[in-house]
Amino acid sequence: MVLTLMMNLILRSFAICSLVASFFDAYGSGPNPFSKMSLSSEVHQDQRSLRPGIKDYGLKNYLRLTKTLPHREDRPWKLVCRLPYNCQFQPSIKVIAQAGQSLDFNSTNPLVQYLTPTETCVTLAGTHTYEAKNWVSGEGAIYTIPAGVTVQSVQYRETGFDTQLVGAFECNDEDFNILWRRAARTAYLCMRDHFYDCPDRERVGFWGDGTPELDQCFYLFDKNSHVLCKDLVLRKLEPSFYPGQHLEFLGEYGLWFYYMQTGDEESLSKVYEATKEFLLKTYKFGNKNTWFDWGKDIKDTSVIENCFEVIDLETLRKAAVVTHHESDLPTIDARIREIRSQFNAKYWRGSFYQSSDVNTPDDRANAMAINAGLAEPSKWESIYQNVLSKTSYSSCFFDRWVFEALCKIGKQDQAMLRMVDRYRTMIESRVSTLWEHYDRWWASWIDAFDEGSSLNHGWNPPAILLGKEIAGVRPVEPGWTTFEVMPNETFLTSIKIDVPTVKGHVKAQIKKSTKHYSILLDVPSGTSGIIGIPTRPFSELNSLSVNGKTVWNGSESSSVPGTTFLGESNGYFRFKVQPGNWLVEGKGKLVLNSPKQPRQVTKPEVPLDSRTWTATASVPDSSSPFSGAKIPIDYSANNALDGDVWTGWRDMSKTQYPGQWFQVDMKRTQTFDKVVLDNTWALWDSPKSYEVTVSDDGQHWSAPVAQGEGHLGITTINFPIQTARYLRITQSGTDPLYHWSIFEIDVIKSKHP
Question: What is the domain range of residue 676?
Answer without folding.
Answer: 614-748
